[in-house]
């Protein structure tokens, strides 16, 4: 077996977050607290999980960070863009996710993280207005400004490498257009300032790829999930991943749906509803922004429970997803699921799930893993869509020839196998 050459994780890793809201500030506080030994990075595989390497009498269980070379938390330097001027400390207080006592020990580091001016278009997020926004003559010019930000951040902070991750608001639904189908047509549309097809998030993604930095899309925005960006990321040898962090309700769906299929139990309907009161909930209260999220959340069940393959079990499933903005709950999202299933001779049964979660608490460890694994992929010379990171995503990106993998256990197997390969071990089909 030929060993993949992975460059060591030497030097500082700049983590540039688009959006400095609830998720990003929770991610930053937790990372800074963990590196001081004041909090545990619960939920992060890169920090906690062990995987099996080797087989039979040679098998061993090792921490992922002892299998592959990952950037140390001590080497992370944070930066961000946002349309509001609040620094990371102010943003964490505003989000009200974490208690004061869990923020205060890293106050100075957080106060130093001041957001750079954002690329923003009110038409893409109608519920928000901010002043910390770039001006430019067209989308191409704005993209060039983001490139300059990345270069300056890297130089000023002495970073060896940079990863860019989107944890900003969900943009309105943008269908795939001809302009998205090749790099040349995308660049032309950016230079012509075709604002209907080039979203602000595309300016960040293009800039990151142009600077050779991995880019991760944590919202369901079309953004980097277009042939033009796949082409660009291959051309520039940059890993890309997306879309939409798989945190609460959808994570449960991708566990429950495979369970039904494994037992050959039928499904008539799946109704999912959420109440959420943070800024994300407010943005998603706009039907155009919700549509982007809805498409992402709906895609999961159809691929796992295939009505064509098993018409007697999964034909015409009624699947509905709702998100209701409900301020009293803030970041404490409550997600209800009702499943109408059927068993032997078609007899009906029901399953109810009530997940009282904390949205940003679930999302933060995903950001850490996605950032560290994307940096690893870059050092291993990998480029284009990183399907092995599907584990973390609601709408895993895939080209037109492949189907996405949604089943959480299959995604976990893909993730472990890629880590084994990158660590110099063989990928395998053994059961752990
Ligand atoms: N928390 C979860 O479980 C979860 C799961 C999946 C996806 N997400 C997505 O993650 C994103 C962040 O969620 P959140 O709860 O932190 O939301 P938030 O509203 O608290 O933060 C988003 C921030 O992005 C900023 N922003 C908006 N447009 C911007 C732009 N063009 N450039 C720079 N900044 C911009 C906003 O000003 C805001 O501060 C949302 O898109 C959300 O849908 C969250």
Tally of structural domains: 2
How many strands in all? Answer: 12
Write down the Rg. Answer: 21 Å
Q: What share of residues is helical?
A: 25-40%
Supply the CATH class of the largest domain.
Answer: Alpha Beta
Count of DSSP H/I helices: 16
> What's the order of the H and E elements?
EHHEEHEHHHHEHHEHEHEHHHEEEHEH
Coarse structural class = alpha/beta
The main β sheet shows up as:
6 strands, parallel
Q: Could you list the spans in which at least 5 consecutive residues all have pLDDT below 50?
A: none
Shape: globular
Folded structure, characterized:
- A 6-stranded parallel β-sheet has the order 4-1-5-6-7-12, sandwiched between helices. A 4-stranded mixed β-sheet has the order 9-8-10-11.
- The protein is 38% helix and 17% strand.
- The protein folds into 2 domains: 12-245 and 360-422, NAD(P)-binding Rossmann-like Domain (Rossmann fold), CATH 3.40.50.720; 249-356, Dihydrodipicolinate Reductase, domain 2.
- The model has no long low-confidence stretch (mean pLDDT 94).
- A hairpin with a 5-residue loop joins β10 and β11 (348-356).
- The protein has 16 helices and 12 strands.
- It has helices spanning 22-35, 45-48, 64-67, 88-95, 100-103, 107-111, 139-156, 183-191, 200-210, 227-235, 249-262, 279-283, 287-304, 311-314, 359-379, 408-422; strands at 12-18, 50-53, 60-63, 76-81, 159-166, 215-217, 239-242, 266-276, 318-325, 334-342, 348-356, 384-385.
- By secondary structure, it is α/β, with parallel strands linked by helices.
- α1 (22-35) crosses α15 (359-379), α7 (139-156) crosses α9 (200-210) and α11 (249-262) packs parallel to α13.
- It binds nicotinamide-adenine-dinucleotide.
């Amino acid at each position: 077996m030929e060993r993949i050459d992975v460059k060591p994780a030497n030097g500082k890793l700049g983590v540039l977050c688009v959006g400095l809201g609830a998720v990003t500030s929770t991610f930053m506080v937790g990372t800074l607290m963990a590196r001081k030994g004041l909090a545990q990075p619960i939920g992060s595989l890169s920090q906690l999980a062990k995987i099996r390497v080797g087989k039979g009498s040679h098998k061993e269980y090792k921490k992922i960070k002892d299998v592959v070379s990952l950037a140390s938390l001590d080497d992370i330097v944070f930066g961000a863009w946002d349309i509001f001027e609040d620094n990371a400390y102010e943003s964490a207080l505003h989000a009200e996710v974490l208690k004061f006592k869990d923020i205060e020990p890293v106050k100075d580091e957080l106060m130093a993280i001041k957001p750079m001016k954002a690329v923003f278009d009110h038409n893409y997020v109608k519920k928000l207005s901010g002043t910390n926004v770039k001006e430019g003559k067209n989308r191409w010019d704005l993209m060039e400004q983001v490139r300059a930000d990345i270069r300056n951040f890297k130089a000023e902070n002495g970073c060896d490498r940079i990863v860019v991750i989107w944890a900003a608001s969900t943009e309105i639904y943008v269908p795939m257009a001809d302009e998205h189908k090749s790099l040349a047509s995308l660049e032309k549309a950016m230079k012509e300032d075709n604002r209907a097809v080039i979203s602000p998030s595309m300016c960040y993604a293009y800039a990151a790829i142009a600077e050779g930095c991995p880019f991760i899309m944590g919202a369901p925005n079309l953004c980097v999930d277009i042939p033009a960006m796949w082409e660009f990321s291959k051309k520039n040898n940059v890993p890309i991943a997306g879309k939409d962090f798989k945190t609460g309700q959808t994570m449960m769906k991708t566990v429950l749906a495979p369970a039904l299929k494994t037992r050959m139990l039928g499904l008539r309907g799946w109704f999912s509803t959420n109440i959420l009161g943070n800024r994300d909930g407010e943005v998603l209260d706009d039907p155009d922004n919700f549509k982007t999220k809805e498409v992402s959340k709906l895609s999961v069940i159809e691929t796992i429970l295939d009505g064509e393959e098993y018409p007697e079990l999964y034909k015409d499933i009624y699947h509905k997803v709702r998100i209701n903005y409900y301020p009293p709950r803030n970041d404490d999202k409550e997600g209800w699921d009702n499943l109408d299933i059927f068993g032997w001779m078609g007899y009906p049964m029901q399953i109810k799930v009530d997940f009282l979660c904390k949205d940003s608490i679930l999302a933060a460890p995903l950001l850490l893993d996605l950032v560290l694994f994307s940096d690893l992929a870059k050092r291993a010379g990998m480029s284009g869509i990183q399907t092995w990171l599907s584990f973390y995503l609601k709408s895993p990106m895939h080209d037109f020839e492949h189907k996405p993998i949604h089943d959480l256990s299959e995604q976990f197997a893909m993730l472990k196998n890629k880590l084994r390969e990158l660590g110099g071990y063989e990928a395998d089909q053994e059961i752990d």
